[in-house]
Amino acid sequence: MRILIIEDDREAATYLAKALKEAGHVADHAVDGEEGQHMAEGRDYDLWIVDRMLPKRDGLTVISDLRKSGARTPALILSALGQVDDRVEGLKAGGDDYLTKPYAMSELLARAEVLGRRRASGEVETSYQVGDLELDRLSHEVRRAGKPIVLQPREFRLLEYLMKHAGQVVTRTMLLENVWDYHFDPQTNVIDVHVSRLRSKIEREFDGPLLHTVRGSGYIMRDGG
Amino acid sequence: MAADRPVRRLKSLLKMTAVRLSAVYFLIFTFGAVALVWYVTNTASDLIAQQARTGIEEEKAELAQIYRVTGIVGLVRSIDRRARQPGAGLYLATDATGRIIAGNVENLQAGVLDETGSTPDTFGYSRYGETGVYHKAIADVVSLPNGMRVLVGRDQSDAQRFREVVRSALILALAAMGALALIAWFVIGRRALMRLDRMSAASSRILAGDLGERLPVLGAGDEFDRLSENLNTLLARIALLQEGLRQVSDNIAHDLKTPLARLRSKAEAAQRAAHSEETRDHLEGIITDADVMIRTFDALLMISRVEAGSHPIQKTKIDLRAIASDVAELYEPLAEEADAELCCEGGPPVEIEASRELVAQAISNLVDNALKYGRAESGRTRVGIRVEETEGLVRLAVSDSGPGIPKDKHSRVLERFYRLDESRTQPGSGLGLSLVQAIARVHGGRLLLEDAAPGLTVVLEFPKRARDGVTHDETAQ
Fold first, then answer.
1. Among A36, B239, B306, B452, which is least packed by CB within 10 angstroms?
2. pLDDT score of A155 more than 90
3. For chain A, which domains are there?
């Protein structure tokens, strides 16, 4: 993916660019809002990573201006402001995801991957398949190797999200945000318990693991090891 | 309540220093006034008696002259004449046997004629033709060589009346003054009391955590205003210091979070690159520890942000029951894993105006605590979430069947970083309840700990209508 980083903190930007490069992406860097907007208009990027507080032009203004001129590139907002309402404000301005500084690099990479890939896939799918596991979004049916699996509604949504992003790392916060629609921090890793429950349902009586734990980051849905 | 109020007000009025002081002054004044009246009336009647005595002396001298010139007959005649004049004094002449010869006295207190010279006290008598009506008088008794006795006196009724009039006038004046003083106290005292009430209402709001509140200043420049101004300056200083302290702890948390996040990222990178399983395990440990620290800092930052109220939270209409059941659903597998029963009572939607995320965070903290620390000593652990609607209040109660918390520790567990000895073995930062309390406060509600015997019930209380900041107990008039 080609990613544009708009961030005035050079050290943080360099660090971020390096991590993105290591993950196989190409990263450009703009140091203020004006330059960032200019660069975003001049080239087609797969993802913008925008710091909220920027010199010359505020990050949210940059995004909403770009959106007004018709740009659809996903935007990930970075901010030192971590209040719930800041997040809502950021998403309203046209951001697609919001991450509070300082963030864990694995969290950022996972989110960047999901956001960038979302654009690539484009159309909405009605069913997902990973290995011999199938999920029908319309009939809410789940089968593995042709055998139906009964899931609770929440388990279904969890699996749906994981399968939608098959091949990508999904973090625990992403699951809580997208499956439960909450952004708070559960003191204990409650998500892990939900995932392991789901895992036992889709893997216990079948061959081969599909839902893998990525240490330090989260989970990944993938056929085979 | 309504009937209690005037009584309560009167009681508090009587407790006021100003009222007590003026009561003392009133007593001193009354004592002084009574002494004055006593002195004035006594002096005045002494003066009147003195005048009467002088009059008697003069008349006695005249009569002695008449006696010397005209003898007994002339004396008796003169007495007779004088006694008949209008407004005359007292005259009496008796022979040696005590029989009345002349004068205007019909009856006399016994024994008055036995002594000669001035009567030491006033005595009772009745005038000729006024049988049964007694007056007071003073007199002089003279004994003649032939055994006759002559009494010359002055009536004292006027002096008596004068004393009575002055006394009753003074008593009336005193009573009027007392009544006026009472009314004045009431008005002045009430005014002072009202201002004090307003001041104490403001200070209770400040105590409840609203450091932005100030004591009322009316601009009259009186002692209340001066006191309020000084206290307000004090409050401003405290707020400044507190803000400084908060900023320092905020900065520390924030500044430490950045290197911590980097540390975590580096550990992740190293983990990906590591070849041995052992190294990976060590790095995993580092990541977990870093996560615990980051979580603690996050909680600390969140508490101070919520408490500072610098960022007014966005409140929307939310269904507290729905959020409670969401959280219950989220924790249900965790409860099952811990062999605990987690149940959330259903019911119709209970709407409050609040921040959905903060409320969910609060309930999640409470359920998390209940599952961690509320484990039953015997039998199955039960954790219940209940939402109740009462008059003007919405209560969310999370109760467990664990050992509970001793009553004397109830307020301490709400302090930041405080942990009970029994729970130190469990992971946690000691910030969970502090955060819940901050969330409750920012919604104008409160956090209460109740004994569930056995176990603990933690109650989150929200006002039905959203109010900003702290709870206002009673608005000042």
1. B239
2. yes
3. 2-121 (3.40.50.2300), 127-221 (1.10.10.10)
